[in-house]
Amino acid sequence: MSSASDDDARILDRLFEIVTARRDERPEGSYVVSLLDGGWEAIASKVREEAEEVVVAAQQEEDEAVAHEAADLVFHLWVLLASRGIEPGDVYRKLAGRFGVGGLEEKSSRLAAERKGEAREEDGR
What predicted TM-score, i.e. pTM, was given to this entire model? Predict the structure, then answer.
């Protein structure tokens, strides 16, 4: 398993900067702008499509194809986040909060918190 250099790791932040610049400056002919103009549902549909392409590539193709499709997915996910005003740091903090906690344990605690919130809503609190 290879480790990314600091420059490689910063590519996600740089990508988000480009996406938000396109969102804010709205240059003519921008693919990001066309996605944003399609609205949240159109962007979500594209994220869903790209996620499916990752799965198909993983089942049928070489690792290079999987990496290519994963890059497409990340790009479209970043557009979705930018459309909602969610920063990469928000995602990074969620990921960092999972270190040292097993996946099943994390999911269990999240579901318990959701159930607790639903119970409060039913009680009118």
Answer: 0.76
